[in-house]
């Protein structure tokens, strides 16, 4: 299921960030590999995105995948 949200924080050097979902739920972790696999060079703070959520294989909570930047 696709969700939408706003990039709260993303640091390319550290390789991760967080997305604040529009539904007001918990922030969603996003890893640099998900960004590059989506064909994006990086994410910018405040950027509107659509994404899907999948569980983290290490059990650390949900993570964002299949990111698409939306027009503001």
UniProtKB/TrEMBL annotation:
Localization per record: Cytoplasm
- Domain of life, per UniProt, equals Bacteria
Main localization is: cytoplasm
- What positions does the domain CSD occupy? 2-69
Query: Which keywords does this Swiss-Prot/TrEMBL entry list?
Result: Cytoplasm
Instruction: Kindly give the InterPro entries that the UniProt entry links to this protein.
Output: Cold_shock_CspA, Cold_shock_domain, CSD, CSD_CS, CSP_DNA-bd, NA-bd_OB-fold
What GO CC annotations are associated with the protein?
A: cytosol
What is the name listed in the Swiss-Prot or TrEMBL entry for this protein?
A: Cold-shock protein
Q: What is the lineage of its organism?
A: Bacteria, Pseudomonadati, Pseudomonadota, Alphaproteobacteria, Hyphomicrobiales
